UniProtKB/TrEMBL annotation:
GO terms for biological process: polysaccharide biosynthetic process. The modification N6-(pyridoxal phosphate)lysine is found at residue 182. One of its GO terms (molecular function) is transaminase activity. The active site is at residue 182. Pfam families: DegT_DnrJ_EryC1 (PF01041). This is dTDP-4-amino-4,6-dideoxygalactose transaminase.
Amino acid sequence: MTRINVMRPWLGQEEAAALAEVVASGWVAQGPRVARFEEAFAEAQQARHAVATSSCTTALHLALVVAGIGPGDEVVVPSFSFIATANVVVHAGARPVFADVDPVTGNVTAGTVEPVLSERTRAVVVVDQGGVPVDLDDVRALCDPLGIVVVEDAACAVGSAYRGRPVGAGADISAWSFHPRKVLTTGEGGMITTAREDWAARARTLREHAMTISASARHASVLAPAEEYAEVGWNYRMTDLQAAVGLVQLGRLPEIVRRRRELARRYTDALAGTPGLRPVADPPWGETNFQSYWLEVAPERGIDREEVLARLARADISARRGIMAAHRQPAYAGYPHAPLPVTERLTDSTLILPLFHEMTDDEQSRVLDVLTSVPAGVRP
Ligand SMILES: *Cc1c(COP(=O)(O)O)cnc(C)c1O
């Protein structure tokens, strides 16, 4: 029996060839390939501007900075997210305020954000959790009239769709991840997309120490012009090595999403007859890329989430506990929050099943056998 992992990136000869070409070119840092990847990504996401970064965490940090978020500000974030969503608010000098999520999608809604707004709220970070598109229009209808910026943490959502367009296309600013746990990977890497030219321009300089002339432009001239540092920036650059892989991966994206949705449908159909297991599904307003195929284990199942995970582990299947809750982490012990009942329920009762491009039907059947083998309501 071989181990079934929760995720495995789909990488091939094309990525290897693209990397070899970058190495042969002698230019491996941020350069022409990053620029090409930005253009191609902006086009694919129907975004006006794209700015590549070293990760989604750094992209989110820059997004908050260019949106003018800083000390004294409150930023509403879901606790039900990877820790980086909250951390970037702290990096920006502001204070994260946790909102609860909708039990069906795992995403914030206007109804969960509204109760935690204050006069100090300057931004809301919405997350397309696990790839499920957030109902952005709903949150913007609440925030836009109040002058509150909505930042979309689309780390999980490349290839997901919202109201017939790619996720992020309708946001003022979005951030993306290309970590191998996500659907499209560059090893590490991230991107900002934004409709605002001024925000894109500032993010572009801030990712490179706020240098007035980019390193690649300086390198292109024999006698490099003197640069200036207009403000305090960071080194948040992507490399041309990563961008070359990203360009190949972007070409694979439609096939990756098609296959993930096919595997997800097979899971959902096969689990329909097992009471007490509620799988994630497309919301009415869009389509998920099924970056995370999660299940809620309800009491009717007769065994709890930990027992399901243990049984999968015994069959050498590596599933994962569902999405974490940041407010429960020691790092956020000092942050008071309103009750977060749905977040706590979902984080305690969900698990993420293996789903990756090259997963075989046999592998998927092995997972399904474990999930469906205990009759509902029967205690083992
Ligand atoms: C993965 C993830 C991030 C962080 O992405 P990195 O590229 O690893 O920095 C941020 N937000 C969410 C919702 C994520 O899932």
